[in-house]
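dumping this here so i dont lose it
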């Protein structure tokens, strides 16, 4: 895949934006994934009060499948060994953030894979969250090209890997984990019941 032309267009556009826009993207690309962390906690806390053990299972699976996707993304990255565009694309505008060191390969984008998995994991747990999580994931992916550290095809494939593998993992694991949560709720162990939630107050 060669998306270096589109990479140049986006990085040129980035340099033409006002400094505050560039700064906002630099902060977002570095810390934006923390938003998903806050959503994980909120969705899990909400699920604790629901009667369905599956709701808790889906809430717990969202961060777990994201971690799984990260590992898968790293495995692909170490196999492909694609150089970062901020070093490889001749004539491109300088990246807005420091170019990652040699050996920190470009394909696929870990940030995008994580964002894709988190977006679908949270959306499967709370469907209406898709209106927030999916655009946030796309914005995270775009930011990686905007600041100059990934090719467009890196982030596109990262999103695809994260969303597809994340969805598959949730669909496979939700049933078994739901049964585990149901058993845990009846175990009487205070710490376990606190984590899974007792369901609605009786």
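and the seq i came up w/
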């Amino acid at each position: 895949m060669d998306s270096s032309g589109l990479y140049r267009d986006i990085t040129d556009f980035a340099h033409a934006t006002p400094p505050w826009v560039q700064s906002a993207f630099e902060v977002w690309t570095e810390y934006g994934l923390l938003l998903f962390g806050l959503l994980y906690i909120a969705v899990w806390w909400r699920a604790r009060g629901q009667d369905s053990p599956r709701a808790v299972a889906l809430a717990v699976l969202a961060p777990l499948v994201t971690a799984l996707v990260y590992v898968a993304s790293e495995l692909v990255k170490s196999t492909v060994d694609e150089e970062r565009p901020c070093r490889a694309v001749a004539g491109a505008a300088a990246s807005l953030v420091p170019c990652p060191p040699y050996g920190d390969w470009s394909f696929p984008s870990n940030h995008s894979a994580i964002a894709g998995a988190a977006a679908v994991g949270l959306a499967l747990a709370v469907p209406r969250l898709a209106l927030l999580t999916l655009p946030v994931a796309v914005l995270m992916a775009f930011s990686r090209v905007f600041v100059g550290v990934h090719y467009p095809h890196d982030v596109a494939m990262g999103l695809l890997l994260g969303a597809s593998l994340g969805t598959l993992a949730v669909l496979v694991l939700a049933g078994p984990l739901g049964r585990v949560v149901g058993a845990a709720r009846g175990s009487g162990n205070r710490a376990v019941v606190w984590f899974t939630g007792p369901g609605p107050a009786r």
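The longest helix spans residues 152-185.
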